[in-house]
Specification:
376 residues; six-stranded mixed beta sheet; Nucleotidyltransferase, domain 5; 2 domains; alpha/beta
Length: 376
Amino acid sequence: MNASRASATAFIVNSGSSSIKWELIDVESERNLRSGIVERIGESGSAPDHETAMQQILAELDVEHPAVIGHRVVHGGSVFTAATLVTSEVEAAIEKLSALAPLHNPANLAGIRAARAAFPGVPNVAVFDTAFHQTLAPEAYTYAIDVEVAREHGVRRYGFHGTSYQYVSRVAGELLGRDDAKLIVFHLGNGASVAAIDGGRSVETSMGMTPLEGLVMGTRSGDLDAGALFHLGRAGLNLPELDAMLNRRSGLLGLSGSGDMRDVQQGAADGDTAAQLALDVYHHRLRHYLGAYLAQLGGADAIVFTAGVGENSPATRSAAVAGMTGLGISLDESLNAVGSKVARVVSSGDSRIAVLVVPTNEELEIARQAVAVITA
């Protein structure tokens, strides 16, 4: 199948922990032909699960033969370091890696299997979130535990949201007019992470061996003293219970009762003290990582916000950089308050470090990488 033909399309599946986004993209023009999203998956008894949602999407797609089907896969471990053509062996490897990303890899794999069944003979390509962070130096990805245990069990920092960072850092560089920019990029969605990017290369990132480490997220705790788990284990919680709590009942949900930032912000505005505490903890963690990555990079050219919360919540952006004029960071609150779907500057004219909002386009990045695999 010739992916360079004007009529060729790429069907892109981004099956995440709480949503499935899909796009049909014209390969030559990179134009979005059709797209859709199923949100709040699995949040209630009446909500669809991933398999049901995927079947609904495929039934509505109305296309006979895409040139390629590209899939976001969260965890490639040390097995997958680049976009990869899907085979039965690749499926098995992705399934084996699900232990490292229990909220995501099973959902990613469900999308792959449904798409392969719906379009037999059409190549499927897995694009891995972890691949972008293969540039991390050993001192950045190594945990200080017994080195033999770490090597045997693959315990190291992998990092995630790689397709988003790759796309966003490229657009940010274009907006700044340079390809050597030092960027601190906050990808803030239901899953949230931050990366320090130097000239297009990831040098630090907040998520670790799994997507659980780092920032406060919708349902995930982020950073936590490992000793707290030993304490809870001695108190009687078993491993499956701890896993479920930290991945599915923590973060904003655990603190406020809702994992949706919109609900939490509304609750805080209505005087809900639990919601206000959840916001305070969330913002505190953002500022903690911002300061750390400024130090690691030796300064920055821009701070970039992307993904659902990062793109659509002026209050989150404002809280993340509040009081940092001494560090050369100053928002223009009027620009920050304007909603827009285009990449833009929201810092003030005298801010030494630019603050940008760059809408991510993981689907287009996945399409580019998927087409590159089948045309190589």
